[in-house]
Amino acid sequence: MATQHEPRPGIPSLFTQPPPIRDPLTTETVQLQETTLEKCLTFLKGLHPSQTGPFNAAGVPALLREDHVAYLYESLEDYPAGFVAMDASRPWMVYWALAGLTLLGENPTHFRERVLGTLRPMQNATGGFGGGHGQTSHLASSYAAVLALAMVGGAEAFALIEREAMWRWLGRLKQADGGFSVTEGGEEDVRGAYCASTIIALLDIPLALPSDAKKARDAGFETLTEGVAEYLSRCQSFEGGISGSPGVEAHGAYAFCALACLSILGAPEETIPKHMNIPLLLSWLSARQYAPEGGFSGRTNKLVDGCYSHWVGGCWPLLQSALDGKPQTTGVPSETVGSLFSREGLDRYILGCCQTPTGGLRDKPGKSADSYHTCYVLTGLSATQHYHYRTNVSVSPGSAFESAFSWRSSPMAAEEEVYEPADRLVAFHPLFVIPHQAAANLRLWCESHPISV
Amino acid sequence: MAGTYAADPEWADVSPIELNDGSESGAMPLATIAYPSDYLEATSYLRAVMAANEMSERALKLTKDVISMNPAHYTVWIYRAKILFALDKDLLEELEWLNGVSLKYLKNYQIWHHRQVLISSKKHFPTMPTKEPDFLMEMFTQDSKNYHVWTYRHWLVRHFKLWDSPREIHDVEALIQSDVYNNSAWNHRYMLRFGPRDDQPDAGMINAGDSSVSPEEKGRLTVVDEDLVDAELKFAQKQILRAPENRSSWWYARGVLRAASRGLEEWEEFAGRFVDGEQTKSSHAVEWLADVYAEGEKAKAVKMFTMLKEKYDPIRKNFWDYRIRQMGVVA
């Protein structure tokens, strides 16, 4: 059996040995964790027969760039009948593939016509995009559609979005407690707040509530963004993490949505400490990283999953920037709290455990690749490869979203890293999860084409 | 397309709205699906009746048909709920059907919002349907950490004011007994014991969501039932003794002490029982002692943080170093 072999050279024992303390008690959670650990160890040691390498001096396999590119191009084409469950997620399929391809260095703009053609029938005259033609508008579909249009870029793509109708629709989604429901008649959660804030910031949507925003107006709100931060504050659980809605268990995906939303609504050094208990949050977030796996889990006592490379990993630049404080310069800050998690651990998990040999990335060994995991595992890898910081120069100076448009990134120094320089990915904006320039272009175009309300 | 609906006289007056998947733009649409013909037909009729906002028995049947082929189709669920109320249908019957669908599609969350929409009707459900907890426990036998089911159960507690219901705490204890690492159950327990009641907005901790109150005050009760606090601490200790390397039970205890504004030092002796050189049985106990010592005995705190970063939890080295630096000590 492969696990009996010596690991490849260059791998610290932290990533080849089980944790030092294990309880004698056995439950379902323990059994699942042990099984996952065993599977991961073979991959972390670089001993699984499907791992073709090449492996570098740190014992880390190379990124299968061409295979992942081919996988994502294929993911944009036709699906057989068995994929009917995806019928309400086609904007996501487009976003995940374009984002993944962009991270891998491909140019998504040649998809412009096809993206426009695909998304046009999904937009509703009453505002927003649904998951497909004839489907009710949904904040998740609208988020994915707006980001896909931002990535392919160009005036025709930007002009496709009916922003006045979007503004009215957002008003109808706003709830009396400050949050947003994801669709009219649908559930309210932290995803809704994040997707709405992203759309508002990128599209320069007027903040004043439209006249038919009944629930929000009755609650005394005057703007779309008022009360959102307070709603998110109520989603922090006693563990310190953030739940999908108030009172539920802390969860990595919702933590990213909440922290990114707070960082869009204002400067993170102000909004995050004002609304979150930082020591509890840091401790919970830090505990998401496991050894020897190196990857993140989404919740306490749950398994690692590659998608949390983004959802949990993406929280770190935001929190680190909040701790670094108000940006003082046009460049890299002179003092920083630095990286508070193990980039090496995450990189080893991503490159060792999440790559499938035929292209595409996955949750964990034993699972199949899909475009959701491919996108967010790659986003997580890219985030570890860059230092994300804010400057005192913004794409949108003086606006409500000045801080959100002041992020920059620079590559981490190669000598500290366990992956090869050739495996470096494109940097993404840490709040909008598309290239910095794509976000800036969309915002600036919208600022120069204001909607009259 | 000669399908079931086209051939049915009941549907003869409806002109189906064909799918526009983007092909008409001339550009090849992206991520297209080779839909089964019966799905294509049913959704074409769905678009037509939804466009007319039709509230009818046949539309209701159609929604069930679409759900059977694609339960992730959120639009059809919202439409179905509207029709059920418009036609004043028997919602208990709907719940029965929903139970089967829920057990079949464990990861689906449209189902749970639909259930919430139905049960939130005070007219139909002035009190909780009696079989509800049994069904939720049946769901938990399939997946005891199902996030959507727990989200729904939390809503149910708040909607029917079940914080002190014996059944709630009984179910939580049964789940913790069978898997002490079930963090979802621990969270539910915390909300039953220390979450805001109906005189305050819902929140994961009390004192949240008011910008004039510091986040440091989150989770701290103004009126403390010390007997309840002591009982919960005792419960946590019992569970820690079963499995000392379990973050859920240690962090529950932290939440309980925070609720009572009592310090971690009252558990210094208890935590110390699990920290003994090579025989150390809990990294969470080491962290507990580090936090106790960080208040004054910095050298001892550094020793604990160093144990964590070097031996018991080294993947979090950067975080432990940060904790050391925060005490004003060079890491």
UniProtKB/TrEMBL annotation, chain A:
Source organism, top-level taxon: Eukaryota
Keywords: Metal-binding, Prenyltransferase, Repeat, Transferase, Zinc
Protein name as annotated: Protein farnesyltransferase subunit beta
Assembly information from the UniProt record: Heterodimer of an alpha and a beta subunit.
Cofactor(s) it depends on: Zn(2+)
Molecular-function GO terms, alphabetical: protein farnesyltransferase activity; zinc ion binding
Keyword Repeat part of the UniProt annotation: yes
Location of region: Disordered: 1-23
GO process annotations (BP): prenylation
Family: Belongs to the protein prenyltransferase subunit beta family.
Domain Prenyltransferase alpha-alpha toroid, chain residue ranges per copy: 63-400
EC number: 2.5.1.58
GO CC terms, sorted: protein farnesyltransferase complex
Function as written in the Swiss-Prot or TrEMBL entry: Catalyzes the transfer of a farnesyl moiety from farnesyl diphosphate to a cysteine at the fourth position from the C-terminus of several proteins. The beta subunit is responsible for peptide-binding.
From TrEMBL, chain B:
Cofactor: Mg(2+)
One of the Pfam families matching this protein, by short name: PPTA
Entry keywords, A to Z: Magnesium, Prenyltransferase, Repeat, Transferase
Leading EC class: transferase
Gene Ontology MF terms in the entry: CAAX-protein geranylgeranyltransferase activity; protein farnesyltransferase activity
EC number(s) given by UniProt: 2.5.1.58, 2.5.1.59
Keyword Transport: no
Taxonomic superkingdom: Eukaryota
InterPro entries per record: Prenyl_trans_a
Stated family: Belongs to the protein prenyltransferase subunit alpha family.
Protein's UniProt name: Protein farnesyltransferase/geranylgeranyltransferase type-1 subunit alpha
Source organism of this protein record: Penicillium ucsense
